[in-house]
Amino acid sequence: MPRASLGEFEQLVLLAVLRLRDGAFAPDVSLLLEREAGRGVSRGALYSSLSRLEEKGMLAVSVQAGDDTRGGYRKRRFEVTPAGVAALRNARDAWDRLAAGLDDVFREAG
Q: Which of 39, 48, 44, 45 is nearest to 16 (CA)?
């Protein structure tokens, strides 16, 4: 079975969800991406990516219990699945293999 590939933005979203742990709600993911990756994120792009990652089996979503809502919608908390962690690991391993021996190039490009 072929591995599901991840785009750069999908990788960043998964990493942000992992970093946020139990606090991985969409607005917090957006703020972390902006702060740590310098990526301004539209609400539509973020929710499209979150849905796509859920469809790929890389994110699990749980609905916040109780009366706490955002704009009338229940808060949804995101969690990276083992498949999502494996996809990130595969992407990082591929990066490491391709970047091996290029430290001097990266230093020169400064």
A: 39
